[in-house]
């Protein structure tokens, strides 16, 4: 306790805002992993930081990490706290570092890039860009509560990734602070040869440094925005059409299975929706209608677009004793039907499962991402929850799927990481030990 008090004293002396108020510590005591909500309803806390710090610049982040490194104080990095893999929860106390005051935005219209602080919330950034006639087109479901730094740290993917790419495709340059306080940055340029070392921070989940600023590509707001909705009798037909449509590179595409179609569209068929935008949208839509072998229907894409940010069901069912979560994995086209059926079978095999469904949310030339949703009403929530995760991930890995597509690894998936990345696992461990010798950043995450 003496060490943390000395560390906080030095941080305050540098003019950095520090709070030890209980309300702030509670606000930064967890991420959005669903196991935390039932505990909060019982006024229980899985973890609690000793203090929360609110840096306003890269330089202030550097001071905090230098001090924490000196005293060996653990630091857990928080953006919007919207992650669901238990990666930001401060199980070892210490300091919760909020990036939300790193909120500067600078738009370069001529070069079509935006420079944004790590704490900029996605919805605010998109609104400002839209006002100037631009879009980032990175819109995860957490758009209105997730941050730029969080996107980079978790290798995030948005709903329009099929047409515009994931966060690593949008990233131009990056500024980060290493665990010992050293600031690393690079000159922004359209492309460079040589090692792209900023990529070590993409998906690193705060293990290797704190992202403080990112320069990203932006795009003109599209002139046309056209939709296609198609229904099918089974997942295989929908996947085959999705693969064919990839030659037209839709901005957005999704497949909903029969249960999710019933939820969204009041239909028991499987549903594919696609969005085409920009100057060639009309021509692409016409060709798409000729390519698909399913039954073209009206209005389903529009219905989903209206509901796509609504996650209010969670707050209604958790107080009733349910546990709810999602598991997303990627696979090649050849494995898609098997991954879909076997992961659903694995989830449904766990006693207590009430419902399990899936949709395909992101598409590539070589494959896609399946996004599984489950809800259970078990006698023991925690045992049930971890058993669903175990069976689902093992079914994915056994049948050609991977560990994660865009939610990350965190604590929830770390037991399978070495199987996923093989010989790169010891490299990651070595990199962590070199950059963070005292292991202060996000202890217990991923490794």
UniProtKB/TrEMBL annotation:
Protein family according to the UniProt entry: Belongs to the FAD-binding oxidoreductase/transferase type 4 family.
InterPro entries from the UniProt entry: Alkyl-DHAP_Synthase, FAD-bd_oxidored_4_C, FAD-bd_PCMH, FAD-bd_PCMH-like_sf, FAD-bd_PCMH_sub2, FAD-linked_Oxase-like_C, Oxid_FAD_bind_N
Taxonomy, superkingdom: Archaea
Statement: the UniProt record of this protein carries the keyword Cytoplasm: no
Organism field: Archaeoglobus fulgidus DSM 8774
Protein name in the entry: FAD/FMN-containing dehydrogenase
One Pfam family recorded for the sequence: FAD_binding_4
GO function terms (MF aspect): alkylglycerone-phosphate synthase activity; FAD binding
EC code: 2.5.1.26
Lineage, uppermost ranks: Archaea, Methanobacteriati, Methanobacteriota, Archaeoglobi, Archaeoglobales
Stored PROSITE patterns: FAD_PCMH
Domain (FAD-binding PCMH-type): residue spans on this chain: 45-221
Enzyme class (EC, first level): transferase
Key words, A-Z: FAD, Flavoprotein, Transferase
GO biological process: lipid biosynthetic process
